[in-house]
Amino acid sequence: MRLAKRVENLPPYLFVEINKKIAEKKARGEEVISFAIGDPDIPTPPHIINKFCEAAHDSANHRYPEQNGLPELRQAIAGWYKKRFAVSLDPDTEILPLIGSKEGIAHAALCFINPGDIALVTDPGYPVYSVSVMLAGGRPYYMPLTEKNNYLPDLDAVPGYILKSTKLLWINYPNNPTGAVAELDFFNRVVEFARKHDLFVCHDAPYTEIAFDGYQPVSFMQANGAKGVGVEFHSLSKTYSMTGWRIGMAIGNAMMIDALKTLKSNWDSGVSQATQHAAIEALTASQDSIQTNNAIYQRRRDLIVEVLNRIGLEAKTPKASLYIWAKVPEGYTSMDFTADLLEQVGVAVTPGIGYGKNGEGYVRLSLTIADATLVKGLSRLSGWRNDRRLTSKK
Ligand SMILES: Cc1ncc(COP(=O)(O)O)c(C=O)c1O
User: Fold this and answer.
1) Pocket flag, ligand 1, residue 270 (CB < 6 Å)
2) Whole-prediction pTM value?
């Protein structure tokens, strides 16, 4: 038996080594404190859970769900976008609920890329963009995100010969893993660039609601003409602590939404209807939990940034997202540092190289660590010693 080449050719999972070390430590009975995963520890607000339970008791929700999402859900998404971003969307043609945004993101390339076509993706970046392009037979072209360019891609640096075969551009702000944000002027430039080179734009925006110090991230759909060139992927996962529920949405360009609808109607049967009812509740009821949770994340952010800088990493304070992107001390690669931290003090972080070549030299720490564990984690981080600096000074 031989597996399909498309699976065999997938890049190796870069966290395998670290995960093995974590498992070994745990097997020895040693506790590992993990800052590695961006998965809210704060539970889903009770009113959303109650709505789900109510809907689960209604036999109407035991049958196959509405394939393109309940009309009331698409209406609720339109109302939420209008209120939050002053963006108008047609619930029938410009909105499609997803089984978590990752599902839609992974399927997008199959709608917009032919074999051999190029997609522009960022490096570092959420790995699903490039892997899905490869699975569709396309080729990713990596645009570096660096501190110097505020982690925004330099669109003008993409060579003309690449643009000739490019069909799709992926962007993501607030950004995972760098925590960077983009403003409307950047999104306006993206629209112009996409028009000039006849590209589809996909903006991945699951972190627009996780923001600090009063900052309010913008939506790509607020850019002039955005709906003419692209779609935005959004999610209830981080906003309402619902990663386990699997519900998100694609909104924007009607032709692109229709393509996703057609593809998905052949492949899946939509989001469980009780979950759709919970999502309506989340989007239309009180939004107070967002501010409450952001205050918790902000406090954690400040504590983590302070400790990281104290032990010799360079960590900037992010305005949004669930992540701190920290430069490792000189003499360490991101993998070396991650392994050393785990070995010395039993703390797990994510090595930046896992997000692409330009992630080298960085690690990512997540804010989704429960307060009691955080205190322990910070005390362990404080105890980390830079052995390499000591050696070189001898
Ligand atoms: C940048 C980015 N996009 C998409 C997702 C997927 O989110 P969802 O739970 O909606 O599938 C994640 C999850 O961590 C993410 O970080």
Assistant:
1) no
2) 0.96
